Amino acid sequence: MSLRLATFNVENLMNRFDFSGYRNQLNEDRTLALFDIQSEAEYRMLEQARAIAQSDDTRQLTALAIAATRADIICMQEVDNIEALKAFEYGYLFKMVGQGYRQKYTTAGNDSRGIDVAIMMRNETVQGQPIEFVRMTSHAYVTYEQFGLQTPELEALGNQANERIFRRDCLEIDVTVGGAPLTLYLVHFKSMGPPRNGLDGREATMPVRIAEAQAVRRIIEDRFGKEHAADKRWAICGDMNDYRQRVKIAGDSIDGYRFEVVDENQSCINVLTAGGFCENVVERRPEMNRWTFYHTRGPEERHLCQLDYILLSKGLAARNTTAVPDIIRNGQPWRTIFPAGQEVDRFPRAGWDRPKASDHCPVVIGLDMA
């Protein structure tokens, strides 16, 4: 009895327009920045036209990336709401995968933009085993104070003890697959953001992600018991906005690129994997071939890294020792630099920077649930 489980940050699957760029240049689309827009009403009209024109190609590429996973269950990040998810699945994905994902769940988290974690599930696996929803529990309300996680580092970042830990949610989904129980924890941790307090964006926001990771572990241990939690059937899926390694890129397309694997001293992922609590199964792949995201701030700052995770409990990983995740990179924009031997055929109409399926790559693994 097998299950294909995937995670994917689809990047802003919205069913509303974002007009905040008129007053905040950081949110302004670069296309509209080229024009002399005289009023907010004019901006709103142009933003609607731009978003509609761009959306169809983007959604087709996103749907192609999801279809390529052949997943029975897919955990998603940056979904606006259930109506946006339904419209996307029916209008795009259903045409590619037939019966599609009939079961869809999400809930309102803490992100001020309204982007949430969500899940889509087929009614049964490819082998015909029924997938049944049992319950859904949001942990968006949990505060630093409740879990005893407030630290001076968080205080220095302006996070108060009574504030909520998760920037979105830790959404707990219980299902059965052919009668076998499985619990999924859907997460989307704090983004790295710009440099602050003399630190780069990753270091400056690290205390928040560490607290989020500690909270996820606490939720799992409270649910199953601290002594037995690692042996239960569960997985943590999502965009954790952090990495333990990155592949630094130097050189250019003329003289050739050079790639160097660099280990990081600190990562929120370590909180979850410490003591063998769970396993980052993507690390079963070669070091140079674990990346799910291409980051660049110009030629002096380029790297490939893993931001997207399926962490299997120790018990579930032990039942699937030979399972190695696939990473779907065909939806990447052409600007992404691939190490030699990793090149893929891009999906039709993928652009230099956009349209694209997402800057993130879907991760999928086949699991034995017997």
Automatic annotation (TrEMBL):
Acetylation among keywords: no
Key words of the record: Endonuclease, Hydrolase, Nuclease
GO molecular function, one term: endonuclease activity
Superkingdom: Bacteria
UniProt xrefs under Pfam families: Exo_endo_phos (PF03372)
Domain Endonuclease/exonuclease/phosphatase residues, every copy: 53-360
Protein name: Endonuclease/exonuclease/phosphatase family protein
Annotated InterPro entries: Endo/exonu/phosph_ase_sf, Endo/exonuclease/phosphatase
SUPFAM superfamilies for this protein: DNase I-like
